[in-house]
């Protein structure tokens, strides 16, 4: 009972977090850190101690009370502080320990089971379908769409009609484990925080010691709402692409928001090796291809091949754009036959991190097909040179870029001039509007306050306390509001550009600035 309480009320960990924050300040002091000699890894040590506490509470099943966690905390502090000098004598040993931290975080972070039950604000309920598209590439795709409310109310009460987010090694349905598991989201969070932790869903899947299934509040295979079957209204197609080590299922709350306002959302697991994993039906239909990790230390990928960071991301984005083209072709042919009432003149693309850069590149390549672009914390390295040289790399479409407050300090931005690149990109896009009298687009550049790189994703709702420690989200108490604010901004942007089939009532009362840019 205590374990269940601990898992479902993870904000009780706040007590531990306060202690960790105090300890971090002590360890970061010049006298103490100089004496122990491990200032380079003080943040990582704090993360290790937190993860260790959570691991102990999960593995030993001792009816965990907060007091017991404090005992473990002090015990582990002593052990790790004793090991600290060893970690700095051999930095590679320290990095090995940090990889173990990443594994801990994948396995032991407590989850909040109600994260997917947020009410959708739009007039429609939401259905979901799963498919693999065969074309130039073979991305696995999920589709979220507006469905009939009567059917939804009848079916949503049964978990068998919902889509599971996390499954701990269900061998009877491996596609859902490998393609959708939020295990990969946690690995992604760890990797962003520690920069050298690779994704390893295979290990996490086998070490997960108890079944945890979290269902998306959408009905699998539900019928399309009559407004669209009767062609009274047309669906707005939206394509979403995730970031590094991401799965196609990360921002399901956003997908449900969009579908509730009449959008049909296609979310992709990319086939370039940057997603957590995928199946390549052209080569071996039964084999899962794992995330191809690029080491910032050795500048090699998982196969030992050397690249510069910019070269590696450029190749990745180019291949990802092929996935987008494959999905667009699918929408024009297969989806148009199945759903019929899809309005391709409103095609919108949305991406996060490397997915943001992917959608920017896709929009640049396909200006007559893609009508609007939304990017969350886009990682612009792949087009750094073209942007900074002031070439013709800009978007003609209406563009919304939302930057989180904390992403500017990410280690993934350390090796290129990210701020200068973003500022130049803004200038190029806004200038294209000013020089073209026929271009009536609205661009918006929004800085999302109290947010981190994962604030856009469902994972920010699972265990905001530990994620705030890694600076991948802002204040834990504000995580839900920040996500709702972001999603409201996206819908407001689409409404302003006449991209939604129904009126957006802006339930969170978040307004975009009236000018074309915001500093």
From TrEMBL:
Keywords: Hydrolase, Lipid degradation, Lipid metabolism, Membrane, Transmembrane, Transmembrane helix. It is an enzyme of class 3 (hydrolase). One of its GO terms (molecular function) is 1-alkyl-2-acetylglycerophosphocholine esterase activity. The keyword Oxidoreductase does not apply. The chain crosses the membrane at residues 44-64, 71-90. One of its GO terms (biological process) is lipid catabolic process. Gene3D superfamilies: alpha/beta hydrolase. It comes from the Eukaryota. Its EC number is 3.1.1.47. It holds the Pfam family PAF-AH_p_II. InterPro entries: AB_hydrolase_fold. Signal peptide: none annotated. The keyword Transmembrane helix applies. This is 1-alkyl-2-acetylglycerophosphocholine esterase.
């Amino acid at each position: 009972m205590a374990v269940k309480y601990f898992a479902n009320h993870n904000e009780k960990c706040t007590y531990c977090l306060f202690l960790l924050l105090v300890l971090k300040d002590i360890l970061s002091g010049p006298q103490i850190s100089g004496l122990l000699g491990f200032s380079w890894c003080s943040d990582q040590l704090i993360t290790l101690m937190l993860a260790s506490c959570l691991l102990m509470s999960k593995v030993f099943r001792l009816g965990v009370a907060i007091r017991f966690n404090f005992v473990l905390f002090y015990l582990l502090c002593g052990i790790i502080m004793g090991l600290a000098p060893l970690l700095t004598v051999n930095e590679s040993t320290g990095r090995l320990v940090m990889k173990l931290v990443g594994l801990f975080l994948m396995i032991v972070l407590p989850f909040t089971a109600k994260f997917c039950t947020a009410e959708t604000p739009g007039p429609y309920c939401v259905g979901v379908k799963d498919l693999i598209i065969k074309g130039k590439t073979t991305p696995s795709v999920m589709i979220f769409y507006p469905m009939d409310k009567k059917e939804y109310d009848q079916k949503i009460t049964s978990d068998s009609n919902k889509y599971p987010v996390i499954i701990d090694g269900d061998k009877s349905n491996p596609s859902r484990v490998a393609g959708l598991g939020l295990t990969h989201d946690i690995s992604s969070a760890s990797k962003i925080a520690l920069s050298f932790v690779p994704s390893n869903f295979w290990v996490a899947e086998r070490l997960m010691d108890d079944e945890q299934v979290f269902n998306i509040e959408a009905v699998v295979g539900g019928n399309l709402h009559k407004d669209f079957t009767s062609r009274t209204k047309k669906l707005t197609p939206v394509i979403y692409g995730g970031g590094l080590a991401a799965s196609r299922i990360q921002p399901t709350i956003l997908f449900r928001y969009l579908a509730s306002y009449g959008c049909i959302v296609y979310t992709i697991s990319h086939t370039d090796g940057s997603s957590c994993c995928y199946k390549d039906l052209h080569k071996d239909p039964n084999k899962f291809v794992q995330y191809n990790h690029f080491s910032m230390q050795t500048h090699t990928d998982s196969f030992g091949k050397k690249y510069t960071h910019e070269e590696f991301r450029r190749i990745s984005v180019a291949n990802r754009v092929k996935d987008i083209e494959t999905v667009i072709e699918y929408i024009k042919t297969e989806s148009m036959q199945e759903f019929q009432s899809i309005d391709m003149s409103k095609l919108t693309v949305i991406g996060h991190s490397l997915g943001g850069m992917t959608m920017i590149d896709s929009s640049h390549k396909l200006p007559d097909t893609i009508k609007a672009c939304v990017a969350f914390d886009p990682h612009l390295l792949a087009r750094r040179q073209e942007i900074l040289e002031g070439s013709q790399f800009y978007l003609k479409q209406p563009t919304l870029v939302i930057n989180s407050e904390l992403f500017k300090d990410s280690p993934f931005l350390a090796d290129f001039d990210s701020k200068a690149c973003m500022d130049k990109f803004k200038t190029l896009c806004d200038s294209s509007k000013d020089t073209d009298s026929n271009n009536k687009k609205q661009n918006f550049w929004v800085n999302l306050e109290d947010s981190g790189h994962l604030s856009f994703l469902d994972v920010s709702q699972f265990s905001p306390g530990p994620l705030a420690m890694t600076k991948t989200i802002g204040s834990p108490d504000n995580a839900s509001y920040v996500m709702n604010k972001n999603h409201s901004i996206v819908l407001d942007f689409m409404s302003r550009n006449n991209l939604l089939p129904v009126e957006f009532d802006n339930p969170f009362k978040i307004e975009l600035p009236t000018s074309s840019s915001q500093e």
